[in-house]
Amino acid sequence: MRTSDFDFDLPDDRIALRPADRRDRSRLLHVKGGGLGDHVFSELPTLLREGDLLVLNDTRVLPAALKGVRPARQVGGGGAVTVDVNLLSPLAEGTVWRAFARPTKRLRAGDRLDFGAGLSGEVRRRDGGEIELALKADGPIDAALAAAGQMPLPPYIARKRAADEADADRYQTVYARAEASSVAAPTAGLHFTPELLAELETRGIGSVRATLHVGAGTFLPVSAERPEDHEMHSERGELSAETAARIAEARAEGRRIVCVGTTSLRLVEAASADGAIAPFSGETDIFITPGHRFRTCDVLLTNFHLPRSTLFMLVCAFAGTERMKSAYAHAVEAGYRFYSYGDACLLERAE
């Protein structure tokens, strides 16, 4: 198996830079044993079965994109410089972070960065394009980040446009919990509305919550020739005893588990490592490629992913590589929109 096995042609104009005008008006491609079905996301309740159980990732995206100023140094020279910072992952709860910074070469250990809204940071160390940053605030750091930061849009969007007020709402699921902890959105969940969730419940389709704190590693391309040589970044996840019990009960009753997003799928698979679903709290770097034996998930709802990515490898493992290449070729031809702000697909697991 080689990384090139997961390549396909994706025109630039198929990558969505903005979301659909309404969350549930995104398109939805149903990939099933009998072929492909073109739908609108609001039709999801008619495509699922009574008794299905959805697993929703309720993580909230942190406004992790910051613009700051490094004041002129009193010792060692160097005038004031503007610095763009993207928080990547916490090293200490809410205070010390790994972060990308530009221009990194203008920074050194001990430099202070002022972000406004009472938020500042001290550079602890620099390593290539990354820094270790200790945040400080006049009050709660979460509140200062909310005031000073912006949504950390994926790199391919950020290169084309800046985040705006609309992103503060649309790059967040409607069921995100109060605490912000992720630096990327669980994007399959962006299509849901409160009304759609209510309709699913009315039709006897249940849901449970789990949390995977999504890291920036989700955007890292696979540069190694062989997927097994790619290093997956770990992410923190929590699956409560109550959620694990409801999933186990549904499986025992022959009902389907529908994972909303690759983040939910990776978490339930990590929590099923010993064969049966169990409560989980900790780090996971699970990397799912063809040949993986799925233990818990029966149906996957996900967005369209980029070529040669770990996420495209995951959907190929779930639904079959040739089946997914055919589905993606149809999606490109039919004008579906790809990636975080793009359309969705509903995948039936291949035997």
CATH homologous superfamily classification of the largest domain: QueA-like
> What is the third-level CATH name, the topology of the largest domain?
QueA-like
Helix-strand topology string? EEHEEEEEEEEHHHEHEEHEHEEHHE
Helix content bin = 10-25%
Question: Based on the structure given, which CATH architecture of the largest domain is correct?
Answer: 3-Layer(aba) Sandwich
Q: Indicate the structural class.
A: alpha/beta
- Beta-strand segment tally: 17
Q: Which regions are unreliable across 5 or more consecutive residues at pLDDT < 50?
A: none
Largest sheet: 9 strands, mixed
Number of domains: 2
Strand order of the largest sheet: 2-1-17-16-14-3-12-13-15
Number of helices: 9
What integer is the average pLDDT? 93
Distance between the termini: 20 Å
Radius of gyration, CA atoms, in whole angstroms? 21 Å
- CATH domain class of the largest domain: Alpha Beta
Description:
With 351 residues, this protein is α/β, with parallel strands linked by helices. It has 2 domains: 3-61 and 168-348, QueA-like (3-Layer(aba) Sandwich); 65-148, QueA-like (Thrombin, subunit H), CATH 2.40.10. The chain is 22% helix and 28% strand. It is built from 9 helices and 17 strands. The protein has helices spanning 44-47, 141-148, 155-158, 165-170, 194-202, 241-252, 262-270, 310-319, 321-334; strands spanning 27-32, 35-40, 53-57, 60-61, 65-70, 81-92, 96-102, 112-116, 119-127, 130-137, 180-182, 206-212, 235-239, 257-260, 280-284, 299-303, 344-348. It has a 9-stranded mixed β-sheet, covered by helices on one side. It has a 6-stranded antiparallel β-sheet with strand order 5-6-7-10-9-8, covered by helices on one side. Strands 4-11 form a two-stranded parallel ribbon. β8 and β9 (119-127) form a beta hairpin. It is globular and about 70 Å long. The two termini are 20 Å apart. The mean pLDDT is 93.
